Write the structure tokens for this entry.
Amino acid sequence: MTGYIRAAQIRLACPDLEASLRFYTDKLGFSVELVMPADAPSLAVVSAHGLSLRLEAAAPAGTAVELRLLCDMKTLPAGLARELTAPEGTRVELVEAEPPVELPLARQEFVLVRLGDKKAGGWGLGRAGMEYRDLIPGRLGGRFVASQIRIREGGPVGDWVHYHRIRFQMIYCLKGWVRLVYEDQGEPFILNEGDCVLQPPEIRHRVLESSPGLEVIEIGCPAVHETYADHAMTLPTPALRPDRRFGAPLFGGQRFARHMAASAVWSPWRLDGFEARDTGIGAATGGLAGVRVVRPVAGRSGGASVSHQGEFQFAFVLKGAVMLEGKELGRHRLSAGDCCVIPAGVAHSITPEPGLEMLDVTLPADLPLSRG
């Protein structure tokens, strides 16, 4: 049976996960192997000295110590129990070493979050000391997460080489700059305000340093996903492979994409009276997702009523303001820092004010629209 076991973990209940993480890493030299979710960690795996600990904030205090065996479940002998009890009473659980990425069914609903809205939960501490603001509090049934992330102090970031088991993930630089490095994508580079990257599934990467007051928008699917450390890899990697596909076969393979606002080209958008600079994420994901910055064309106005038939439509106001109206949605003026999710099948119009710039994220990239 031991040939089927890939790793073993001791499960510990940690009501104050942050304090436990600091204790094991700072005082005892453990290294972080896994954190989830990144915006508000409730689970972490740390290892050192031949020992691996699974720290769970959700486990009730006083929970008995348990042993988790990470296995290749398809090769286990038929009939072998998935839960065992050792003679001294220790519970032993056999689990899949590499479980599939689960995509919860999407819940279509209108979401409106305003800057400074305390009902949305405000800012909270997430992975690597970064602060997170939740932009989709209900997570659309667990399908999507959107976060505004900031780093107050500039300088080196306490990050490590890591990757995410995820279907889709992008980062847009809202304020300041951040220096990043990615597997097979060359030397570290600066992501400046207005720039954007696609992080394909499982690409290794690291946040190196940032300006004071850095802010980015990060959107991912599914909402809860694993962030794994890769302590064996050193970045940058020697190879430069811009056409490498990541994430196959789970999600068809996606290329890394980097969009620089300074060299962007503006083209007509899907609604009359608007133009957009496309980030190239649609092409890099094979049409799975699209990310673009939208603004009104000078001397023209929007306002036509439309509805979409896609999986996801998210808008974040970067500059200026816009009026969103619909019979089912009501009438809402969104200004810089406000954002919304528009559900499928709901007719609405958007009317820009001068100076509007808006981040538009959709799944699929070419969002099916209906007029009227």
